[in-house]
Amino acid sequence: MRDIFIADAHLLDPTDENYRLLLVFLEAQRGQVRNLFLMGDIFEFWVGYRHAVFAPYVPILEALRQMREAGAQIIYVEGNHDFHMGPYFEQTLSCQVLPDGGAFQIDGRRIYIAHGDLVNPQDKGYRLLRRVLRSAPLRWLMALLPPDWTWGIARWASSLSNKSHATKQERWVPRQMLLAHAKERFDEGYSAVVTGHFHAPLHEVKGQGTILALGDWIDQYSYGVYEDGKFWLESYKP
Ligand SMILES: [Mn+2]
Fold first, then answer.
1. Which pTM does this prediction carry?
2. 215 C-alpha to center of ligand 1: Å?
3. I want to staple 202 with a disulfide (CB 3.0 to 4.6 A). Which of 1, 48, 104, 213 is the partner?
């Protein structure tokens, strides 16, 4: 049994290539996975309601339910596009939801898992926005709006931010920042740090531990694997 780590699929429409391939991948992994770590931004937009889910996400939710039924424990680390995972993830899928990431034990070793959007301590503006978006009042407001409206607002906000970020298309891992972040975690006793968010894969073994940045499920189709005490990255080629 292996552990699988996936991040940044930014799923939107079941007919998209990356969405389709994620379903194929999960089906092939079914029954062989102990822990499935969904490391954030799996969804382009998610907010959890008690009795409703967004229609485009029905196929992936069903695939996750089948993974769960086949014995996988699902751990959801929230991203900057998918948070307030809510009752569907916590109850229906019995996921362990970690809003900010944090500690996780595998085979008696402590690893640190996080989406990666908090790796930069200088990014104060983003941290404030993040706190507001995740605050209780905003969660209540979103719960009061009809799901069709939240979906529409989120798609509109995302089209605005895509426009403003159109110039910085290249994807890179801020390696030094990630190493500094990992060093702090290693000093706290963690033996591995796994993050997503940067859409570029990175795997380094430093004296104290392993650093894994997952890449994405859009261009790289990269994901992390842990088995028999070792971490590595793989790239999915169907
Ligand atoms: Mn992200």
1. 0.94
2. 11
3. 213
In angstroms, the CA 97 to CA 78 distance is 7
pLDDT tens figures, 193-214 = 999 999 999 999 988 899 999 9
Of 42, 72, 80, 75, nearest to 59 by C-alpha is 42
Span from the CA of 42 to the centroid of ligand 1 (angstroms): 9
CA dihedral of residues 70, 76, 82, 83 (deg, nearest 10): 130
176 CA to centre of ligand 1 in angstroms: 18
Domain count of the chain?
1
pLDDT digits (tens, 9 = 90+) for 148-186: 999 999 899 888 876 655 444 456 778 999 999 999 999
Cα(115) to ligand 1 centroid in Å equals 7
Cα(198) to centroid of ligand 1, in Å? Answer: 7
Which structural domain, as residue segments, surrounds residue 10?
A: 2-163+170-235
Q: How far apart are the C-alpha atoms of 156 and 37, rounded to whole Å?
A: 29
- Joined together, the tokens standing for residue 69 give 């039924």
Q: What is the pLDDT of residue 208?
A: 83
- The CATH number of the domain holding residue 80 is 3.60.21.10
Q: Where are the beta strands (DSSP E) in the chain?
A: 2-6, 33-38, 73-77, 96-98, 102-106, 109-114, 192-195, 201-206, 209-214, 222-227, 230-235
